[in-house]
Structures are given as structure tokens and as C-alpha cells.
Amino acid sequence: MSTTDEGRERKSQRRLTLSFLVCMVGPLVVGVILNALVRPGIATALGGERHSHSSGVRSQDTWWSFDADTVRQHPVLTGFLEASDGLIAVWTLAVTAVILLLRWLIVVRMTRSRRA
To answer: Where, by residue number, does the polypeptide cross the bilayer (predicted)?
Structure first.
């Protein structure tokens, strides 16, 4: 194998590693930002009432409720905010799993096409 082939192979491996990290960390970062910043900000702006349920030392599930007028005016936002933080976290993990599965399928197909 020549030096340029080795360089291409290393670059390809780096790209695969980077894509794995993006697939793994990206959705988790989005989920944390949603639960920590975006949802509380929107709920405050809409005048929502915060509810929390603590099931242990570390975990606290939070959601908001709204009056009927606000729900009528902003049905999508209030529906999103009435879901608990835990549900958002579960959806984030599910999206991460689906993205990683799709990435794996793409890598397998790319590897097979290179061998053929």
C-alpha cells in the first residue's frame, strides 16, 4: 500500500469516527438544550405553570400546564411543553438509536461496495 493510500485510509477512518460522534452526541446535546433552556423559556413566555415530580436525589421530571386560552392560541407549543422532560429524554435516546442504526447500515453498504 502506498503512502497516499494509507493517508486516504486514515482520512476515511477519521471521517467515520467523526460521523459516529456526531450521530451519538448531536441528538443528546439537542435534548439537553431543549430541556434546560428552550422549554423553560417558551413556557415562561406563554405564562405556563411549572410542575415537578422528584423520584430521587438526581432526577426531577418537569412539565408545564396552561390555561385554556393559551392552549387554544398555541396548541402545538403547549402540547410540546405539557410533555415531561423525561419523555423528551426518551425520545432523544430513541432518535439517537435510529440515527446510529442508519449510520451503521450506510457504513456496511459502503464497505461492501468497496470490496466488490
So the answer is: 16-38, 86-106
